[in-house]
Amino acid sequence: MRFDADFRLTIGGALEPGTGRMAVIDPATGAPFAEAPEADLRDLDRAVAAARAAFPGWAALPHGERAARLVALAAAVEGHGDALATLLTREQGKPLAEARREVTGLAAWLRAAAGMEVPVTVHEDTPARYCETRRVPIGVIAAIAPWNYPLLLAAFKLGPALVAGNAVVLKPSPFTPLATLKLGELARGILPPGVLNVVSGGDALGPWLTEHPGIDKIAFTGSTATGRRVMASAAATLKRLTLELGGNDPAIVMHDVDVPTLASELFRASFGNAGQVCLATKRLYVHAAVYDAVRDALVACAEAAVVGSGLDPATTIGPISNRIQYERLVELIAECRAAGHRFACGGTVPPGPGYFLPPAIIDNPPEDSRIVQEEQFGPILPLLRFDDYDAVIARANAGPYRLGATIWAGDAEAGRALGARLAAGNVWVNESRPLSPLVPFAGHGQSGFGVENGLEGLLEYTLARTSSVRRHPPG
Ligand code: NAD
């Protein structure tokens, strides 16, 4: 396949121009660099109809056949890895090395899903009776991804949805549609027509999709506010739901850590992907015994970071991914300054045109400040001093989110014991977001609903179907 700059919807195995066109902005320049198709409601209707038509045949294929197609798609992704990564960097902003890791992740997630099989549970197998529960596919899945990891978060949904026998309509964010549209293009000829449809569009497309009567399940990753709207629109037709939503992850640095060896990991946990990670450390609680040393080491990391275009190999932190998020963060910085918070570094806004923000570290702001209480989703980290472990657990567990939480400890066992007291779906000790396609990942509270990855994530794309047979007919 020629990997050109012509971007099309994939509907029923055909490439379509879409009814309208929308500009895609390069966040490193603030200027449009490509056009994506803008699907209207009729385009969406045809995508859903194509998925519905493809579903029975795909579901009827032997599992091994579906798995083989996913492995072939993973190979096609790898075969176009450089082109996909470059496109991702252009539209999303992340450094090319990070974009390459995301593309590798997409292929790895597809392969891992292909290796998973849905179990059958036999409850009774006696001369009198046979009773089993099988899992059957749900039907047509609406997969909706955000702009921070367009390909990886699509992969979390596509792999298990497809291997379980569902058809999919995938919708990327309007800010980052391009690499996902190319994924749809790559899938043509590998997946039967209509099994994977990719539609891009404006702000109306998401609600059209989640309200659509032809959709059986919505798998959504995005903000908590949008997640609530998605859940409401699912109610009318009782669509099944998986929601992976926002987070305001705390991390606790214990008194006995080795600061010099820890610093770069702490920095990456908060500033990787310019802080635009659902599972980034967004509040860093540091024991008073090491607070000054941690702050100074993080400031040194921030000063060594190279902020620039993701296409420049020297860059370690790319631009903020879109103007809306950039303006939110610029306003948050201004608010922190107006509130008198002390910036240990950063807090300046370079002149445009790109959406660049150097990493900022805020030195011990009040616990009730907005930068501590809300999800910033950008390269601004509040550092918070503590000296009492009971009190810091209460601070870390406060707030509505329950996504991830991390303990950094010199004594890993003491870290594990402290971590057991944290309220979150994912708790790590001495490592940050070690995600795997084989390990369940769930947000609790306002961070989500359901599970992605692992066997539990796969089962979310199935329905339980129990059948029993009385072996001796009555009479
Ligand atoms: P967003 O909620 O604005 O958008 C996410 C997706 O939903 C986009 O494709 C968007 O077009 C679509 N959408 C918007 N309104 C919709 C509606 N009413 N109905 C249906 N779809 C709609 O989120 P974002 O700004 O793209 O992403 C950032 C947020 O995502 C952050 O809060 C972050 O924490 C969260 N996130 C969570 C996870 C996780 O796994 N928990 C992972 C990544 C990002």
Search tags:
about 475 residues; alpha/beta; 6-stranded mixed beta sheet; 24 strands; about 40% helix; binds nicotinamide-adenine-dinucleotide
Put the structure in a nutshell.
This protein is an alpha/beta fold and 475 residues long. The chain has 15 helices and 24 strands.
Largest sheet: 7 strands, mixed
Number of helices: 15
Small-molecule binders here are: nicotinamide-adenine-dinucleotide
The unreliable regions are none
Oligomer: single chain
Task: Please state roughly what percent of the residues sit in beta strands, choosing from under 5%, 5-15%, 15-25%, 25-35%, 35-45% or over 45%.
Answer: 15-25%
The radius of gyration is 23 Å
- The number of E-state strands comes to 24
SS-based class: alpha/beta
**Mean pLDDT value:** 97
Q: What overall form do the CA principal axes indicate? A: globular
* Portion in helices: 25-40%
Largest sheet strand order: 14-15-16-13-12-18-19
- Note the gap between the termini: 65 Å
Furnish the topology, listing elements before pairings.
Layout lengths: L8 E3 L2 E3 L3 E7 L4 E8 L2 H20 L2 H17 L1 H12 L3 H19 L6 E5 L3 E9 L2 E5 L5 H14 L3 E5 L6 H10 L8 E3 L6 H7 L5 E5 L2 H11 L5 E5 L5 E4 L5 H13 L11 E5 L3 H14 L18 H16 L3 E4 L14 E4 L6 H4 L6 E7 L2 H9 L3 E2 L1 E5 L3 H8 L6 E4 L11 E2 L1 E2 L2 E2 L1 E2 L1 H6 L2 E9 L5
Parallel strand pairs: 7-8, 7-10, 8-9, 10-11, 12-13, 12-18, 13-16, 15-16, 18-19
Antiparallel strand pairs: 1-2, 3-4, 5-6, 6-24, 11-22, 14-15, 17-21, 20-23
Helix pairs in contact: 2-4, 3-4, 3-6, 4-5, 9-10
The chain binds nicotinamide-adenine-dinucleotide (NAD).
Nicotinamide-adenine-dinucleotide binds next to helix 7 and helix 8.
